Amino acid sequence: MALIDKAARRHRWDTKFAPYGYVTPYFLIFGVFGLFPLLYTIWVSLQHRNLLDEGGAYVVWFANYAKLLADPYFWNAMGNTLSLWLLTTVPQILFALGIAALLNRKVRTRTLFRMGVILPNITSVAAVTIIFAQLFGRDFGLVNWVLDLFGAGQIDWQAGTATSHIAIAVMVVWRWTGYHALIFLASMQAISPSLYEAATLDGASGWQQFWRITVPLLRPQIIFTTIIATTGNMRLLAEPLLFNPGAAAATGGSDRQFQTAALYLYEQGFTNYDFGYSSAIAVVLAIATIIVAGLGYLVTKRIQTE
Amino acid sequence: MRPKALAIGCAALATAVVLSGCGSDTASGGKTKLTIGLFGNFGYAELLKEYASTHPDVEITDRTASYSDHHKNLAAHLATNNGAADIEAVDTGYVNQFKATPDKFVDLNTKGGDQLKDRWLPWKWEGSLSKDGKQIGYGTDIGGLAICYRRDLLQNAGLPADRDQVAALWPTWQDFMAAGKRFQEKAPDGVKWFDGGPTVLNAIVGQAPVGYYDKSDKIVVGENKDVKAGWDLVVGGVQSGLSAKLLYSTPVWNTGFKQGQFATVTCPAWQMAKIKDQAGPDAAGKWDVTSVPGGGGNWGGSYLTVPKQGKNVDKAVELAAWLTAPEQQAKVFKSSGLLPSIPKLYDDPSIVDYKNPYFNDAPIGKLFTDAAKKLNPQYQGPKAGDIQTAIGNAMQRVEQGKQNGEDSWRQFVGDVQK
Q: Which residues form the ABC transmembrane type-1 domain (chain A) (predicted)?
């Protein structure tokens, strides 16, 4: 009697608490690698703290934030961040839609093409940036060589604001378009062919079918990729850093013309050793990313069938 | 129950492996593993082999990064008390920032450093000494100045190629720019007189009695007439089209050596190793070295530090002392041209009479020991390295046509005084 009772109790204990046990690893890992760094960054952002001298740190509450909001180089970096966000995210999604539409047709060796579009994504970002920086070189770059064939002058890509942003955007778009294209392609294949058949019978062209059927039905995926791309593109660091290698890499160009907010954070943290200020930039950047991602969500949510 | 227990065991093991995967440097096979973190070219490859052969209980791994990556990584590793090499090289431009937190490093004075003190130039020793008298690094080389030039390019432009005659072209930096204008008239397309404004400017700044800081660590570059005069002179050179507009120590600058885009480059002693690495064997004999315009000056030079977080600090201190000892510095000078920070060597015949075959048998021994004796050390403030970066950016703004000399100077002075 007592024995059965014990077994039953253990069974009840098992069903009641075991599920928590199963999900614990996720929360532990999230706590250690997600939540703790986040809260710690906020805590550090309230301090005056040298990167190398944590003993000498003291709390200054919101002084770092006050300084940040009055810092023209921070706003310059935020401006560059938004410009690069626009120049990367919009082409990325448009190209990805186009590529996915092409891959969705019955072409020969399409598995090969589908594999091919993801290739840029699995390359090392450092290696890619170094190669692109050479392609966009002033004196011996391939891009300038091609432009020269058409009679266009030599462009010093790193010197200008617009030219440097374009060069960096090309790297990012090249790397991520294929990834988004595969997500779109998977969803395109789930769209019932009967919709297209009906549209064809009604005399809709391929172009109309794409914009009126395919894109509206991909709305959830477009929202998803917009948010994923935004969170990635708002914190570009490696591309602008390695686009301008050398001692001045962290300033993002001679006049900070392509210094992103993440790069400014890096400069403040690892060149000026101002850990507190750098953490404040991180917090503001995170808030800005949430806002921009929210805007992206609101825009893409409006996609609908007429 | 068994498979479940096994699974838990495996998961725990996997986690343990992942967690211990980083930063373990314990002995394998009874050997002490030492790592040494370097940047650029210290000329240590042969020396490390030699040390390992006489110390079979030690296994040395060297890792080399670019100048700025190396110092930023070191800062991160010191901040987290994890990941630093047993020995870390630190450049003059950064040593002041690191010696402000001496507790991150082994105080070499407590490990016999105070006994070795007289080896080094007094200013080199003081350069890495913290305010409270802790020694964080042993001096490696100093950056005595010279000019490296392409004999063939000068000759083709109707200028002398012989190093004494070349030196006679430019007693002062004004003369250097004047010679540049003569060169540029006959130079082929795409070949300029000097590599980039920031390189020339760094040499001029290094020769001034006062640089970016005064001795009380106040930033005085805004009022420094020597630096401003040098700035104006280099801006003039850039406007006369003498600059190849390449920033030193970048990939495009390296390409510039291979492509022969410039005829001269300011040559602190360590620059010779870079030229040899970048221009490659094809350019052997084309480059030569001669004395620098203006007076003696210093640009760069390094120290070997031992971060306290290391697990084998005693063995690391021993290796650092050995690498920076007179015999080893003499060897590095001959193999790579790094100028010793050991005054005793400046009269050593094996150094003074040394000629470098790559640089057309230039008597670099004589040239650089003379430069070292003339050298008037300039006080380096806490953020000298960052100010040097900022003035380089400022000069680039002029070279890229983004700003004129005056506006760029004003922005630079405002930036560094923030």
A: 78-296
